[in-house]
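Today's session is about reading a structure prediction critically. Students often jump straight to the picture, but the first step is always the sequence itself: look for stretches that repeat, for charged clusters, for runs of hydrophobic residues. Only then move on to the predicted structure, which in these notes is written as discrete structure tokens rather than atom positions. Here is the chain we will use throughout the hour.
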Amino acid sequence: MKKQEKSFAGTLPGTGRSQLAFPETYVVVDLETTGLDPERDQIIEIGALEVVQGKRGRTFSTLIQPRTPLSGHYVSPFITQLTGITDEMLAAAPQPRQALEAFGKFLGSRVAVGYNVGFDMGFLQQQFQEQLFRPLANDWVDLLPMAQTLFPLWPHHRLNNLAAWYHVVNQDAHRALSDVETTEACFQKLKQDVLRQYPSTQAFLEEVRKKIQGKGEEEQLSLW
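Below is the predicted structure for this chain, in token form.
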């Protein structure tokens, strides 16, 4: 569950920017949330994986108990059916401030990488401001426009479409850490495809830039 009409990410003061890059050191990030609106809905799970100089490192995973006016009722039946996350699981989960502080320490100043990760960063930026009273200044790299550029004829470009193409098994789809592991595996395979089909990664990223121009994101994207 990850779709919104316009990215919220980068709109709050002091927040990071979307980048076009193949970084060597980064943190793959994925969230599960109660809905699609960063200003109204809340994070219920964070998963993350650090990659240092191209090598996988530590993982981070936490549930988060969302604020709710109804005691003990945290997620809708739809979200439970989609993610497997239940009210009972969230009843014992850390509070938002505690979980976000821990995630912030894990992330550090590194760039975030993810699939349609602008969705995730919008939520994280909103929650960092509300819970920790500071902006989340980390930049991010989104695999989605890369997949759209590399496979322009696909009718859909969801993470599960990319995973199926690369024969990557997502052991627990719609749980944050499993989606993170899947994203990283697809990222590596996508990069190999790029190197086979383009003279350089920079040439490919220039093509991605051309594809996204006119879609309202060119103000946030920069090459590095």
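Discussion point for the tutorial: The helical segments are 77-83, 87-91, 96-107, 117-132, 144-150, 159-165, 176-197, 201-212.
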